[in-house]
Design a protein that fits this description.
Elements lengths: L6 H23 L2 H26 L4 E6 L5 H10 L13 E5 L14 E5 L8 H6 L3 E9 L3 H16 L2 H5 L4 E6 L9 H20 L28 E5 L8 H10 L3
Parallel strand pairs: 1-3, 1-4, 4-5, 5-6
Antiparallel strand pairs: 2-3
Helix pairs in contact: 5-7
Length: about 260
């Protein structure tokens, strides 16, 4: 019994050889200049596609959680990842770093983009870690303790000022969300109050820092408009303020910020 299963394959091979001969004959008939132009067009097209692909894949999808120790960064991290505040009630001295689909989106149908979230400890001696991760950020969430705000207001403003004046943040227009946490507490301050007080404190910092030699603040970008009181709308990158409570799972403002700005 003869086996004829390879016949279609042989036919395809013969057809391909025929097309190859026809293409070769056509090329021989064309002027050399036209062939060079066609080759150049093909090469440039391939190069553009490769570069576009590289740029697309290099877009950041990292969200940096920052703020003073005890403001609730770690609680927020676990709420975003697991929908629970477990392990998030103790001030962390170690970075939490993970890539995951937001817990609130795990049941969604269709393609859901994962996000890379880094929770940077707020201890002063670990601050250099923040400088390390900011260049990779698609967005920064700055968490403020709304319940204990007045006692930490100056330190929080200084920390936020350092972020807002970083050249990498300003030049890349990295959006910043100021998340007023723990607003479920009766004694918590409103986001409007916190916003105004932070603007006042940053205005003081701006005036004092502007008096320093530019050689000492070479990595800083001056904030605001000269001669005008500072407010967040003057920043070159977008700064918004929202409120919620990580311990109760009220983190929808942070989740929306991530959806708006993460480029996966």
């Amino acid at each position: 019994m003869s086996y004829t299963g390879s016949a279609p394959v042989d036919e395809w091979i013969r057809q391909a050889e025929l097309w190859g001969r026809q293409a070769e004959a056509w090329i021989r008939q064309q002027p050399p200049e036209q062939i060079y132009v066609a080759a150049a067009v093909v090469a440039i097209t391939i190069l553009v596609l490769v570069v576009a692909s590289c740029l697309k894949s290099s877009k950041p999808n990292t969200i940096v959680l920052s703020g003073l120790s005890g403001c609730g960064k770690t609680t927020l991290f676990y709420q975003l990842r697991d929908g629970s505040s477990h392990q998030g009630t103790v001030t962390s001295m170690e970075e939490n770093n993970d890539t995951f689909v937001l817990h609130s989106e795990q049941e969604r149908k269709g393609k859901v983009k994962p996000v890379h979230i880094i929770d940077v400890p707020g201890h002063a001696r670990l601050k250099p870690k923040l400088d390390e991760v900011l260049p990779k950020a698609a967005g920064v969430v700055f968490i403020v303790d709304a319940q204990d705000f007045l006692s930490s207001m100056q330190a929080a403003a200084e920390y936020l000022y350092d972020i807002l004046t970083k050249a990498t943040v300003v030049k890349k227009r990295v959006p910043v969300l100021i998340f007023c946490n723990k607003t479920d507490k009766v004694t918590a301050h409103s986001k409007e109050f916190i916003k105004k007080q932070l603007e006042k404190e940053i205005n003081k910092l701006r005036e004092s820092r502007n008096a320093i030699s530019s050689a000492d603040i070479s990595d800083e970008v001056q904030l605001g408009v000269p001669g005008e009181a500072f407010n967040f709308s003057q920043c070159q990158n977008k700064v918004t303020v929202a409120e919620g409570a990580g311990s109760t799972g009220n983190v929808s403002a942070v989740e929306q910020f991530i959806r708006d700005y993460v480029k996966a």
